[in-house]
Amino acid sequence: MTQPARARPPIMRRSGKCCHANATCSAHGRYPSRESFLRGGRASMRQFPLEALDLAPGRLVEWRLQRMGEQAGSGVDGPVRRASFNQDKHFSVAEEGRKADDLFSSWLAIAFEVSGPLDRHALESALLYFAQRHEVLRCEFRRLAGELACEPLGPQDIGLAAVDVGEFDSTDELRTFLSDSFKERIDTLSWPLFLMGAVVRDDSSTVYLAFDHIVCDGMSMPNVVSDIQTAYAAYAAGSDVVLPTVGSYLDFAQEQRRRYLAISEFDGRLDYWKSFMARNGEFFPRFPLDLGIEPERTYPTVNEAFPLLDARQTAELESRCLAVGGKAFMGVLAAVAISLRETGGPSVYRGLMPVSERGKGDWLGSMGWFVNTMPIEFSVAEEESFAEVVANVRTGFAEMLRSIDVPFVRVWELLAPDDFAKRTWPFPVNFFSYADMRKCPGAENHHNWRPTTHVWASRSNGTSSWFQRDTAGLHMNSIYADTPQSRRTMTELRRTLQRVLLEISHFGTMPSPRDETTGSRVHGTVTTVNGPRRAEPGLVEWERAVSR
């Protein structure tokens, strides 16, 4: 089925001016420019700090979502809809933070290119089509009798107001304005829950959208660019928008609550979690390295992104994994576990892993928070070979998938109620996320659209890392609490991880144990100090880079 849109939807037009304040760039990590991004053939969607986005100057225009009806939900009949477990917990944290005057804020954003002179009305129409297409984007959230109600406006009850912000003469000014706007205006407790705009130039424009997490997840971002680019091209050509029908996240949330709201801590579907907790000693798996975090305290964040492997090295890594019965993500997770052990962690990996709940049906193209979070556990003992560790990952992952039924937030509430009452995870938690962006919707057009994604959080009491594969290779984005110890720890971990990944990709082996007397690493008949020094370009280049 398709969702045709024949006529351009009506746009509310309003001109306006606003100013921006100067600010110092707060990014602690830099990333290659868009030219470097394209190096190696074609671009692919990649996540890195907004402050590192190579954004050419231009005229900034915003489109602000407006209510056209008298009240929220005026265009949608039927019973009150309830938020998902993820949404409810996220909203509760925001409510409690506001009461305590200690707000935690975060956002997800995407930017992409529209080539040629901008057809402004076509873009406005495409943005409105996008908001009308996804019910969750039109929602307001309110507490009703203790439960979180999700009240959508009807598609006909929203419009857009265009605001000409003004000319920006430098990239730094633009990035500062966008960063400040996202931080100040993305608010879980206020509608609308996302922002839209474009930096317009004579020969191209950069379109951007920023969202509160309550209406989307990371895998929603490919749908944003695919929907808007497809609709823009259709409106600019005067033709229909033809996209597959998508399901509503609100329907997903309703079904989730129907199935799991009434379960108790004695439900057999929680046995996997209980077994994990018995071995782990508590609900959350701790990040095993020292970050210098004080209990019951959060910190401003560091947001860093780095390339780990180039395209050839990543392909070699995948070949090594396939040769021992695994997949690329299993090799990456094995390398993370090995690196944690080598920098002082345990010989058993325990961590949380987000898993998509979209499936391959109508949810695939939807906006929403389709993520469950599950614990995974496997051995990474020093005497085990790479093949054995990958087999352990494969077994642990299969066991996890057999028990993926119950939503994480519901399990948390049932099995760790004291921790559930807190506004943050109780301590630094071991977290691993992997996505292959070459397989997401619209990936075949990324070399023209040039999309980038960006994540930000105001405070943290731990660390989270996202690993992404694209056409240029394997990349890592980490957000962690800003302490001197965490900077040292995360830098050492990243360097160790890159060395381990290179070892696996080149030789299909794990780094050898250190010689107890010299501290050197032993590779057969070759002894290396301060990391590998085989006659491999990737390893040599890496050593030169980290020794600067």
List the helices and strands and how they pair.
Blueprint (H helix, E strand, L loop, with lengths): L11 E2 L20 H5 L7 E2 L10 E10 L13 E2 L2 H15 L6 E10 L4 H14 L5 E6 L2 E6 L5 E11 L2 H15 L8 E7 L3 E8 L9 H17 L11 H12 L10 H10 L18 E12 H13 L4 H15 L5 E9 L14 E9 L6 H16 L6 H8 L1 H4 L11 E5 L9 H4 L2 E6 L1 E2 L2 E8 L2 E9 L2 H24 L13 E3 L2 E3 L8 H10 L2
Parallel strand pairs: 1-8, 2-15, 14-17
Antiparallel strand pairs: 3-8, 3-9, 4-7, 5-10, 5-15, 6-7, 9-10, 11-16, 11-18, 12-13, 17-18, 19-20
Helix pairs in contact: 3-5, 8-9, 8-14, 9-10, 9-14, 14-15
Write a concise keyword list for the protein shown above.
5-stranded mixed beta sheet; disordered N terminus; 548 residues; alpha+beta; globular
Structure description:
Residues 109-425 form the Condensation domain. The protein is α+β, with helices and mostly antiparallel strands and 548 residues long. 33% of the residues lie in helices and 24% in strands. The protein is built from 15 helices and 20 strands. The strands form 5 sheets. The chain has an 8-stranded mixed beta sheet, sandwiched between helices. Strands 14-17-18-11-16 form a 5-stranded mixed beta sheet. Strands 4-7-6 form a 3-stranded antiparallel beta sheet. β17 and β18 form a beta hairpin. α9 crosses α14 (484-507). The chain is globular. 46% of the residues are buried.
